[in-house]
Amino acid sequence: MTGIVYKSTGSWYWVKSENSTFHKCRIQGKFRIKGIKSTNPIAVGDKVSFFLEKIGDEEIGIIKNIHDRQNFIARKSVNLSKQTQIIAANIDVVFLLITIDNPPTFTTFIDRFLVTTRAYRIDTVLVFNKIDAYEIEQKAEVLYLKDIYEAIGYQCIEVSATQAKNIDVLKDMMLQKTSMFVGHSGVGKSTLVNAIEPTLNLKTKQISEQHKQGQHTTTFAEMFDLSFDARIIDTPGIKGFGIVDIDKYELNDYFPEFFELKQHCKFNNCLHLKEPNCAVKEALEEDKISWSRYKSYLQILNGEEEGEHYRTDNWDEEEED
Fold this sequence. Notes:
Layout: E1 2-8, E2 13-17, E3 22-27, E4 47-55, E5 58-66, E6 72-76, E7 84-89, E8 93-98, H1 107-119, E9 123-128, H2 136-151, E10 155-158, H3 167-174, E11 178-182, H4 189-196, E12 222-226, E13 230-234, H5 256-261, H6 279-285, H7 291-301
Parallel strand pairs: 3-5, 8-9, 8-11, 9-10, 11-13
Antiparallel strand pairs: 1-2, 1-4, 2-3, 4-5, 6-7, 12-13
């Protein structure tokens, strides 16, 4: 039988077969995917082959094969730095939810995430959520960030789940696609998904006022069928995003504004550091490139993690939403 993984809890997988029946499955033996050292060999969105086996009174599915992936998105495992965590597979579009405050989403996180989705060739849309709750200064920050990312080719959209602002626009963008919603804990993923599809009734929790961050709501990634011919993958809240295996000479390819300029650099292998006649550095000095983007580039290039000194002190542990 063939099916798609809709939910994973680490050792068990819920697979929807081609006849739309869900089966509780486990893995047959150990999986090794060539070139990937992953903490989770199978991810939500994977297409798998499985057979059914009777164990006592229960019928269990045994996954024996993973089909080739269209794409997947992964990050460094939090506790095992040499391994990766595959968040989801076979994604058509990712919606990265951003909030200016309560909790804040920093550009270092945005840029690391965009590098990863660009490397894995996954379309990404920046979704500025909770737009109804912002004062003038916060709205100005939204406009500033939109200017940065729209200028380099990313689509940006302002939404409000509570006031249903641009929910229909989001639904149109999701039509006939498998979408993934990603962001920090507390950015309102579950509330937004509920606004898109109220019948799902996903659990939501309030922001912790003490730390300006979300509380745990989603424990594992899970995919849902929607009523308007679309699928959505709801993911755990992500605090940091460790970049996986990108060569330093290829990194600038995943910054579209750098990629566009690098042909004008004096050296073909220019890293845009202290090399003479660097088109990227010249554009930076002329404010044609965002300094926050360049700072993110340097951090990734130097192998620096999203440490506490780039964020507020309460972002020092992994948290799920």
